[in-house]
C-alpha cells in the first residue's frame, strides 16, 4: 500500500515537472548554434507576443539591410563571444539565464573610435537585458523591451 501511495504521488508530480522543464529555454541550443547575422532593429515590439512579431523595422532600404548582414556574432559555450563590424571585430563575454530570459554582455573589446552603424550596434549590445529565440531566430532587447535587434543564421 505504501508503494502505491508513493507511485500515485510521483504520477501527480510528473505534469508539474514537465511543465517546469518546458518553460525554460535551452540556452546553448539558442545561442551556441553557429554564427548569427544581424537582420534589423525593430521598434514598437510586443515582447510578450510571438517571436516573429517583430514590430516596425528601423531600416528598410536595401543598401542598409545588406550592410546590416555584415554584423555578426558568435557565442561560444565557454561564455565568450566574437563578432564582426563593418570596420573591425569585437570580443566579450556573455551570460544568459533561461528562467527569466535575461541576457548580458560584459568585458566588450571593440575597435577605437566607433562610428555610425558600428557604434549603434555595440551600444545596443551593451544595453541588452533580455533575449528570446530558438535555433533559427534570436532577438535581444534592452530594459523595457519595446525595441530589439534580430539575428538569423546566414
From TrEMBL:
Keyword annotations for this protein? Signal
Q: Does the keyword Lyase apply?
A: no
Q: Which residues belong to the signal peptide in this entry?
A: 1-23
Protein's name in the database:
DUF4847 domain-containing protein
* Biological source species: Phocaeicola coprophilus
Amino acid at each position: 500500500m505504501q508503494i502505491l501511495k508513493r507511485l500515485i504521488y510521483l504520477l501527480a508530480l510528473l505534469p508539474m515537472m514537465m511543465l517546469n522543464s518546458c518553460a525554460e529555454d535551452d540556452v546553448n541550443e539558442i545561442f551556441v548554434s553557429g554564427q548569427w547575422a544581424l537582420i534589423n532593429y525593430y521598434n514598437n515590439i510586443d515582447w510578450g507576443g510571438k517571436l516573429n512579431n517583430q514590430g516596425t523595422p528601423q531600416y528598410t532600404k536595401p543598401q542598409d539591410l545588406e550592410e546590416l548582414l555584415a554584423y555578426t556574432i558568435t557565442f561560444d559555450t565557454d561564455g565568450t563571444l566574437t563578432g564582426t563590424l563593418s570596420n573591425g571585430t569585437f570580443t566579450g563575454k556573455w551570460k544568459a539565464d533561461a528562467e527569466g530570459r535575461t541576457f548580458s554582455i560584459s568585458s566588450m573589446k571593440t575597435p577605437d573610435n566607433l562610428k555610425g552603424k558600428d557604434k549603434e550596434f555595440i551600444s545596443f549590445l551593451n544595453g541588452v537585458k533580455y533575449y528570446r529565440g530558438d535555433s533559427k531566430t534570436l532577438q535581444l532587447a534592452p530594459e523595457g523591451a519595446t525595441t530589439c535587434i534580430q539575428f538569423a543564421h546566414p
